[in-house]
Amino acid sequence: MVKLVIVGTGGIAHWHAKSFQSIEGVQIVGACDIDNDKVEAFTNEYNIENTYNSFDDMLEHCEFDAISNATPDPFHKEIALKAIKKNKHVFSEKPLAENYPDAKEMYDATKDTNLINMVNFTYRNSSGYQKLAKIVQSGGIGKVRHVDATYYQAWLTSKYSGDYRTQNKRLWRLSTAHGSMGTLGDLGVHIFDFASYPVGQITSINSRLKTFKDKGEKIGKYVLDANDTFISMIEFDNGAIGTVSATRFATGFKDRLDLKIFGDLGAVKIGFEDPVEEGNQYQITKDTERERRKSDKLKWDTINTKPTPNNFERFIESIKNKTNDQPDFKRGAEIQKILDSCIKSSEENKWIIL
Predict the structure, then answer these.
(1) What is the Cα 167 distance to its own chain's centre?
(2) Residue-by-residue DSSP string for 119-147
(3) Would you kindly state where each structural domain of the chain is located, as residue ranges?
(4) Which of 30, 49, 75, 298 lies most in the core, judged by the most C-beta atoms within 10 Å?
(5) DSSP string for residues in 44-62
(6) What is the reported pTM?
(7) Phi and psi at residue 47, in whole multiples of 5°?
(8) Are strands 256-263 and 267-272 parallel, antiparallel or unpaired?
(9) How far apart are CA 76 and CA 16, in angstroms?
(10) Rounded to an integer, what distance in angstroms lies between the CA atom of residue 344 and that of residue 350?
(11) Domain 126-310+327-353 belongs to what architecture?
């Protein structure tokens, strides 16, 4: 039996609780939050026995094997390092940290341990994406030459999850003073992992980040200075180039990811909003030999895929098998280095070598 605690009981923690409770051999034995009313409601909803307002108290008084770190971004490092010091496995929400030095420190803390560490890059839960990645990594489309990856979200132009102008539930995501890295931090952390995991390491990047002042510069205590949209040109260590972009102004899309990878022997592509319900297929073409005929369209095959373990299941299985699956803290630190490089590139208006 893996005994697990959840630290932080905000919105994302409910997904963690439901996911871990659905896995056989997992018992959630405690929850922690500085907001007593929130954590009490959370433990009552999920029938969790132990409630704490201090993670230090939890570490001292609660017996457990692993933590699910669902705290806000600025607290990921502190919580993870304390847990690692006490020999606890750590499942962390993304991004791993607020900057690369902190993320590297977290990764370095795991190096001389046998502790399982994982970052919740949620779009790894797509079975179609997992299969697509294996095809690319094994040379199934030949040498990769070009990559296009986009993450489209309409949060600033649609009221599907509330109106940011009248509801402050998400306003912190528009304010750097409240710990937000904007669209780059919220969406970029996903789309850079999405684009590079199948292809390989990004070695250089040129980015442009943009904050649209005409949407409003301040609402209440929130200064709306975080970036709203970005676009990046990238080069991989294998010589391939590509573009990665994300925006909250993509009217018509709630949460849409698209990825196209072109090799010299074929290409693959995938796109979805829900990684499980819609991400259970991908498309592939190896239509390279056909001679041109006016009526022809090049053929793409749609391949349906069987479900693969989600990140929560991978974490628990890693603990049981004592072998760290992906995506781990090393990967989380790599992605954070990319995000930091995007900021530097935009500020200095130049290519950055990673």
Answers:
(1) 25
(2) E--GGGG-HHHHHHHHHHHTTTT-SEEEE
(3) 2-122, 126-310+327-353
(4) 30
(5) HHTT-SEEES-HHHHHHH-
(6) 0.94
(7) 55, 50
(8) antiparallel
(9) 15
(10) 8
(11) 2-Layer Sandwich (3.30)
As beta bridge partners, residue 126 has none
Q: Coil, strand or helix: which one is 65? A: coil
Angle ∠(322,326,329) on CA atoms, nearest 5: 90
Beta strands 267-272 and 281-285 are antiparallel
The most distant pair of C-alpha atoms in the chain lies apart, rounded to whole Å, by 74
Give the pLDDT band (50/70/90) at residue 160: confident
Residue 136, token pair as written in the block: 């690319």
The answer to whether residue 295 scores a pLDDT higher than 80 is no
User: Check: CATH 3.30.870.10 for 2-122?
Assistant: no
Question: Which two structure tokens, joined as six digits, stand for 113?
Answer: 């341990």
Query: What is the C-alpha radius of gyration for the chain, rounded to an integer number of angstroms?
Result: 21
Distance between CA 174 and CA 224 in Å, rounded?
A: 5
User: What is the share, in percent, of the chain residues with pLDDT greater than 70?
Assistant: 99
| pLDDT reported for residue 268 | 98
pLDDT tens by residue, 85-127: 999 999 999 999 999 999 999 999 999 999 999 999 999 999 9
The number of helices, as runs of H, and strands, as runs of E, in the chain is: 10, 17
**Side chain identity at residue 308, one-letter code:** T
The SS3 assignment for 184 reads: helix
Query: Residue range 288-298: average pLDDT?
Result: 71
Tokens of 110: 């795991």
